[in-house]
Amino acid sequence: MARNEKEESIHIGFRETITLVLPYFQKKLWGQIKAVIWIVLYLSLFQLFVLRIPIKEAGLIIFGISAVVLGLTFFLEGLFLGLMPLAEALGLRLPQKLGLVSIMVFSVLMGVGATLAEPAISILRACGSKVAPWDAPLLYFLLNEGSVYLYLSIAIGVGVSVVFGMLRFLFGFSLMRILVPTIFILLGVSIYAYFDENLKLISGLAWDSGAVTTGPVTVPLVVALGIGISKVAEKNEQSSAYGVVTLASLFPILSVFLVGMYFSGKLPKPMPEEIFFKQGITLTQAKLLLGDSKWTPPIKKESISQPPSTKEFYQKAKENILNAFQMAMRAILPISIFLLLFLTLILREKIPYLEEVFLGIGFSVIGLSLFNFGIIFGLNKLGSQVGGKLPSTFRSIELIDSTKFIPNFNPKSVLKAVNEEGKEEKFFYLKERKSYTGIPYHEENWNPKSKIYEYIPIHGPIFGKEDNLLGYLVVLVFAFFLGYSATLAEPALSALGNTVEETTVGTFRKSLLIQSVAVGVGLGTLLGMLKILLEIPLVWILVPVYLTLLILNTFSKSEFIDIAWDSAGVTTGPITVPLIIAMGLGIGNQMGTVDGFGVLAAASAFPILSVLIMGMIVEKSRKLSLRDLELKEK
Asked: Helix, strand or coil for residue 459?
């Protein structure tokens, strides 16, 4: 409803303002809590009662997750108040005042800006420390010194996809015209990468990058822009809006591969750690890989690491808070300024409800700062912990985060025992409260200078002997229900279900879509976990799946095709993405797997398959019902 500018302003006090705003804020906050609480409880209870390992730094993790929830509440509200109205206003005016080339240039720039503002993209920055430069030089480079190239390649990929999305909005052509050739190109590039040592190890990162881009910034902004253009172009905005999410998740995969191909020849191939430390790489490669012009081969530390002091912890927390705020400013302000300047200087339009827009931008910065901080101290820590301890179901693992430092240790307290093979092993007794525990003694863990002995506890296998089948099965069941339950909690999927039920006139029910997508994500997460456990190349999973999808497309109705391909994008929200990536890297590190990526890629592919199959069943059921109705009428 239009505002009446002649109406007098109504002034209310602070207490009345709180009374009006608080119920609205509580509703929004509760919506985010519902999206987060189930998956966090699932992971926490699984670690406590199945893995039987306490959660380290539980208070800090709870604080971090609370920051994520509060941050998302502010961020999404700011998005709807500030950036989305600007995008829709631009969409309405662009076709009226600018030509096709100008619209395409604008679309690229907006896609780039929106991607850099995505909350989930910050998780990639936190993954760099989990990769060794000698195991996967190209992967290490893209996550550390070359992270700028990674982010820009993802952003440009989304920008190009927005161009195709806007062209589709303007001309209303079929999604399949872009989808089929793009899939064939991606599969071809993935097969080529499989035979290159460096490129093979970034395949998981490239395919996961597509899932990172379809978050709460890119999708609403692109759809808002597209709806504005659709209104002017007199297209059906609901039907043409399908497919945008798909395009935004495919083109970044190709752009990451292209950047990888460019740097692959400039970086060394994977090599053993010993060779890397003995100057197994050239000075030029070292400068590019490690970013230090005065680089010298690192020397492995022999001194035993000490837990950080309280002062060091608070200093690190302060730095992370500052970094989180700076990252939020760099993400939100450029896209906001770009949209504002474009609307006022290029299109010469008055900004509607300027105060609300600025309030929304402020909310977005505050929300994204809290979210980035929460990622570091909450979701990333929880995901890494659970992932790192999952192999204890079938294998004995070291609990690094439970390392004990025993001061004033005396080697004279070490005893000897004989194992089943008749070999001598050293140990000592440690008194904890009123009980005595036998601790293995390893001479390399003893520091004579500080007189501290470092002890890393061993845990597992929980369900039998080493590498037992039941333990593997427990991990796979856990992975399925993780993907299934996380999908049910995604608000974007519920919104898509409502839209689908309306546009298909009840033929494809909301509950049916949600269950189809959830089962698909569960199966995909299961296969992604299997890929890490058994070190299966990602291309072996994705090529057969996507070829099957293209075959099913030929037998499916166009409306179900668009719905199926978009359903994969809405499942990878800002909560699911960081948790699954952190968990995949955690279990990969524990298993000694170099590439812990790829779980998201599999989790995004299988819901397309399940929805296409369900769409075919629904269509067949509809035809049978119509046939029965015709027979009854006769």
From this structure: strand
* Contact call for residues 436 and 430 (beta carbons, < 8 A): yes
CA distance 502 to 390: 42
DSSP state of 80: I
Helix, strand, coil share of the chain (percent; to 5): 70, 5, 25
Angle between helices 58-78 and 380-389 (to 10 degrees): 130
Residue indicated by tokens 């509580």: 26
Please list, in sequence order, all residues whose beta carbon lies within 8 angstroms of the beta carbon of residue 478, skipping any fewer than 6 positions away: 46, 50, 390
Q: Does the structure show a pLDDT above 80 at 16? A: no
Long-range Cβ pairs for the range 411-416 (8 Å, 24+):
411/446, 414/441
Bridging pattern class, strands 404-406 and 397-398: unpaired
User: How far apart (Å, rounded) are the C-alpha atoms in residues 340 and 344?
Assistant: 6
Distance between CA 299 and CA 53 in Å, rounded? 33
Q: Where are the alpha helices (DSSP H) in 278-379?
A: 283-290, 310-341, 354-374
Distance CA 384, CA 389 (A): 8
Mean of the per-residue pLDDT values of the chain: 81
Could you report the per-residue pLDDT of 56-65, keeping only the tens digit for each? Answer: 888 888 998 8
According to the model, what pLDDT value does residue 476 have?
92
Instruction: Determine the Cα angle at 572 with ends 212 and 470, to 5°.
Output: 110
Count CB neighbours of 396 within 10 A.
Answer: 13
The model's confidence at residue 243, banded by pLDDT at 50, 70 and 90, is low
Q: In the numeric block, which tokens belong to residue 66?
A: 């609370």
Separation between Cα atoms, residue 555 and residue 561, nearest integer Å: 10
314 Cβ partners below 8 Å, 6+ apart? none
* Sign of the torsion angle spanned by Cα atoms 591, 593, 595, 600: negative
Reported for 587-591, long-range contacts at CB under 8 A and 24+ positions apart, including other chains, are 587/387, 587/388, 587/390, 587/391, 587/529, 587/532, 587/533, 588/130, 588/387, 588/532, 589/130, 589/387, 589/388, 590/387, 590/388, 590/389, 590/390, 590/391, 590/397, 591/391, 591/532, 591/533
Question: Count of alpha carbons within 13 Å of 463, Cβ hemisphere only?
Answer: 16
